[in-house]
C-alpha cells in the first residue's frame, strides 16, 4: 500500500532534468575512475612503491568513492529503479574501507591489497558508469553490455581479496592504539572493540560472497540472454 502511494507521489521514470543530472553524474564518475586507473599506472610504471602509492591516489579515491553515497539518494528519490537497501549495502563496504580503515591507519594504505582494490574498483566503475551513461541515451553497444555483466567474474574476487588484505594489515595498529575502542568503565556503560568488530566484519565476507556472487551470475544470465533474444 505504501509503495503504491510512493509511486504516485514520485514518478518511476526520472524527468528530463533528472536524466541530465544522472548523465552528468555518470560521466563525471567514469572520468574520475579512469583518472584513478591512470594515476596508478603512471605511479607503478615510474617505479613507485606501495609506501608512496596512497599519497598519489588518496584524494581521487576519497572524492569519487564517497561520491557514490549520492547513489543511495538517487534510489531514495527513484531517479533509478534500484532499491535503497540494495544500493546502501553496495556502497557501504567500500566507503567503510576508505573512511574506516584506509584513512585511519598507516598499515592499510601500505598493504598490497590497495592496488588490487584500485585495479578492481577502477575497471568495474569505468565499465559500470559508462554503461549507465550510455543506457540513459539508449546507446549501449553490445560489447559494453557484455563487459558490464562479465568483468565481475574476475574483478569481484580480486576486489574482495584486496579489501581483506587492507583490513588485515590494519589489525595490529588498531589493536595497539585501541582505535575507536570504548572500554569499561564509562558513564554510558557501553563497550566496543573495533579490533574484534573488524575481524567479525572480515568473517562476514565468507557467507556473503557466494550470495552476492550468485546474485550477479543470475543478473548476468538474465541480461545477456535478453541480448541474445534481441539478436534473434
Automatic annotation (TrEMBL):
Gene Ontology CC terms, in alphabetical order: endoplasmic reticulum membrane
Transmembrane segments: 20-38, 58-77, 84-107, 113-134, 146-171, 191-213
GO biological process, one term: sphingolipid biosynthetic process
Pathway field: Lipid metabolism; fatty acid biosynthesis
Catalytic activity entry: a very-long-chain (3R)-3-hydroxyacyl-CoA = a very-long-chain (2E)-enoyl-CoA + H2O
Subcellular compartments: Endoplasmic reticulum membrane; Membrane
Membrane topology, record value: Multi-pass membrane protein
Enzyme Commission number(s) of this protein: 4.2.1.134
Primary location group: endoplasmic reticulum
Pfam family, one: PTPLA
Molecular-function annotations in GO: very-long-chain (3R)-3-hydroxyacyl-CoA dehydratase activity
Keywords carried by this UniProt record: Endoplasmic reticulum, Fatty acid biosynthesis, Fatty acid metabolism, Lipid biosynthesis, Lipid metabolism, Lyase, Membrane, Transmembrane, Transmembrane helix
UniProt family annotation: Belongs to the very long-chain fatty acids dehydratase HACD family.
Annotated function: Catalyzes the third of the four reactions of the long-chain fatty acids elongation cycle. This endoplasmic reticulum-bound enzymatic process, allows the addition of two carbons to the chain of long- and very long-chain fatty acids/VLCFAs per cycle. This enzyme catalyzes the dehydration of the 3-hydroxyacyl-CoA intermediate into trans-2,3-enoyl-CoA, within each cycle of fatty acid elongation. Thereby, it participates to the production of VLCFAs of different chain lengths that are involved in multiple biological processes as precursors of membrane lipids and lipid mediators.
Protein name per UniProt: Very-long-chain (3R)-3-hydroxyacyl-CoA dehydratase
Amino acid at each position: 500500500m505504501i509503495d503504491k502511494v510512493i509511486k504516485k507521489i514520485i514518478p518511476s521514470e526520472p524527468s528530463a532534468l533528472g536524466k541530465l543530472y544522472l548523465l552528468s553524474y555518470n560521466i563525471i564518475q567514469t572520468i574520475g575512475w579512469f583518472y584513478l586507473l591512470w594515476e596508478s599506472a603512471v605511479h607503478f610504471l615510474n617505479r613507485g612503491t606501495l609506501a608512496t602509492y596512497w599519497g598519489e591516489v588518496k584524494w581521487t579515491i576519497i572524492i569519487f568513492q564517497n561520491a557514490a553515497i549520492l547513489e543511495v539518494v538517487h534510489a531514495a528519490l527513484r531517479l533509478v529503479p534500484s532499491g535503497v537497501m540494495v544500493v546502501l549495502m553496495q556502497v557501504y563496504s567500500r566507503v567503510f574501507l576508505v573512511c574506516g580503515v584506509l584513512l585511519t591507519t598507516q598499515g592499510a594504505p601500505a598493504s598490497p591489497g590497495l592496488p588490487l582494490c584500485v585495479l578492481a574498483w577502477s575497471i568495474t566503475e569505468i565499465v559500470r558508469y559508462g554503461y549507465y551513461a550510455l543506457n540513459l541515451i539508449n546507446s549501449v553497444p553490445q560489447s559494453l553490455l557484455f563487459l558490464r555483466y562479465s568483468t565481475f567474474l574476475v574483478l569481484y574476487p580480486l576486489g574482495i581479496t584486496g579489501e581483506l588484505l587492507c583490513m588485515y594489515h590494519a589489525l595490529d595498529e588498531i589493536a595497539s592504539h585501541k582505535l575507536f575502542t570504548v572500554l569499561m568503565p564509562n558513564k554510558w556503560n557501553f563497550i566496543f572493540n573495533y579490533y574484534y568488530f573488524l575481524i567479525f566484519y572480515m568473517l562476514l565476507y565468507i557467507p556473503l560472497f557466494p550470495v552476492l556472487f550468485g546474485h550477479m551470475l543470475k543478473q548476468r544470465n538474465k541480461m545477456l540472454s535478453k541480448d541474445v533474444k534481441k539478436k534473434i
